User: Which sequence fits this backbone?
């Protein structure tokens, strides 16, 4: 296979399991956006996010035999990323405005209809408590439904729904009604 | 509450747009692989040498492990209970906050608040 | 018969006292919340939290002081003896009978309870009552009853509440500034 991960999905995992580092590198490239984005939105710090994302893949390398399929891999990566991020936040919470600015600045690659408002929204998400933030990210970045979020975070379904409801209410409360209010 | 549907959908749409994925860049995968190469990480499927197991030692170890597991089980249960209690506490305070906020919002939209009343005491 | 009734009359006073003492085993600021199981079955979401002193103590042990949210919670629950929340959300307007909510409101007309705020929005069909239980000038309980078209919530906090600390939570949980009664613990500090 070529070193840039052009092999079919199932084969990449099989080859990585067989010890082929090039295949593992291709898996990293395939999944790095999701892992890094979740880490960045959770930790609101690029360096910490890079560090955490690297650790997640390192852990994956050590425990690759526990992964049974590509779908399971995606679930595993989200789960480990979120749990590590929440643990890290609990040890060293990041509520300083400087790091919130970083989170606000990390624009997504999708077109921004209202860049100022979306920047503010990212900042507000970064201010949510860790568990609520995790739920919001999995819902609106990863498009998971509440049942999948509950599985990923090992959280009761009602708790997930509660976090979503309250977080949206808080965000709506704190978001300016118009972009003018941001200037 | 139906009047909130549109703002809700609008907020969710904005969230999806604002929280789109961010790529860490071209150098990320090489940095991960460099870290894997640098650390003494065992390969994904470590070979198992043909270990010789003493059944007596295994039995002793198993009973010791059982005792440790039971103690661990109790501790894990206690941890779960504590975390659940903490979660419920935070949830209760959030609900309290939400309803106080609700009162505040209604007061500030000039719908009017009845003055404080003193009963009993 | 007259003799019989007068014979047993001497028991009436101690029985009444006994009944009163049993009733008083419940802290004065603790409401007797009805059984809402039937409502919970109809609700799309329900929150049912009962944290007595033991559970509050357990929860406090798991609060992380380095986390601002946890630190704020720890500061607030120091003097508390219980937090009870019943909150139900429904799929359609006014699916909950007001009779059950009124049962709780009735308890708040008892001596000791003072209504702090009553707000009513006819536009949103929302009604919120906030009560404080005061004993010798010290607040020892808080009750909030919020009725919205698709949700009703009862919060009962038991114990000595530092209203100044509640005020200081503004920003942490978004608690607004309340017009608090003057009192030993009632003045919000700046």
Assistant:
């Amino acid at each position: 296979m070529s070193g840039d991960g052009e092999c079919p999905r199932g084969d990449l995992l099989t080859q990585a399991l067989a010890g082929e580092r090039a295949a593992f590198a291709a898996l990293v490239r395939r999944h790095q956006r999701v892992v890094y984005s979740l880490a960045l939105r959770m930790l609101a710090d690029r360096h910490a996010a890079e560090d955490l994302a690297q650790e997640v893949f390192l852990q994956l390398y050590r425990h690759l035999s526990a992964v049974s399929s590509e779908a399971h891999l995606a679930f595993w990566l989200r789960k480990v990323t979120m749990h590590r991020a929440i643990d890290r936040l609990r040890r060293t919470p990041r509520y300083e405005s400087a790091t919130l600015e970083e989170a606000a600045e990390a624009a997504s690659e999708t077109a921004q209809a209202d860049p100022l408002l979306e920047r503010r929204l990212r900042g507000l998400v970064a201010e949510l408590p860790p568990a609520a933030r995790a739920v919001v990210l999995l819902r609106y970045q990863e498009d998971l439904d509440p049942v999948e979020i509950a599985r990923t975070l090992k959280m009761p379904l009602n708790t997930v729904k509660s976090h979503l409801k309250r977080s949206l209410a808080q965000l709506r409360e704190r978001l300016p009604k118009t972009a003018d209010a941001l200037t | 509450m139906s009047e909130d549907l549109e703002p809700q959908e609008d907020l969710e749409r904005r969230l999806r747009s604002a929280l789109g994925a961010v790529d860490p860049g071209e150098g990320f995968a090489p940095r991960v692989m460099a870290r894997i190469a640098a650390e003494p990480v065992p390969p994904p499927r470590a070979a198992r040498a043909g270990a010789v197991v003493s059944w007596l030692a295994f039995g002793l170890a198993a009973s010791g492990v059982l005792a440790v597991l039971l103690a661990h089980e109790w501790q894990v249960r206690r941890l779960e209970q504590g975390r659940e209690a903490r979660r419920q506490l935070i949830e209760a305070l959030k609900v309290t906050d939400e309803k106080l906020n609700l009162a505040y919002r209604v007061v500030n939209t000039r719908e009017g608040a009845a003055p404080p009343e003193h009963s009993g005491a | 018969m007259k003799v019989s009734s007068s014979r047993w009359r001497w028991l009436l006073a101690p029985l009444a006292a006994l009944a009163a003492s049993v009733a008083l085993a419940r802290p004065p600021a603790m409401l007797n919340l009805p059984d809402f199981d039937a409502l919970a079955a109809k609700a799309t979401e329900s929150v049912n939290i009962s944290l007595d002193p033991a559970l509050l103590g357990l929860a406090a042990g798991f609060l992380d002081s380095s986390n601002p949210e946890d630190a704020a919670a720890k500061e607030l629950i120091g003097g508390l003896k219980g937090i009870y929340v019943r909150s139900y959300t429904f799929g359609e307007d006014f699916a909950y009978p007001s009779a059950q909510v009124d049962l709780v409101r009735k308890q708040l007309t008892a001596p000791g309870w003072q209504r702090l705020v009553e707000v009513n929005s006819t536009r949103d069909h929302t009604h919120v009552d906030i009560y404080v239980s005061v004993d010798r000038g010290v607040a020892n309980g808080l009750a909030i009853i919020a009725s919205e078209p698709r949700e009703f919530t009862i919060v009962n906090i038991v114990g000595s509440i530092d209203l100044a600390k509640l005020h200081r939570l503004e920003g942490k949980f978004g608690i607004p500034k309340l017009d608090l009664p003057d009192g030993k613990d009632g003045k919000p500090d700046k």
Observations:
- Residues 2-24 of chain C form the longest helix (23 residues).
- Residues 124 and 148 of chain C are 8 Å apart (CA to CA).
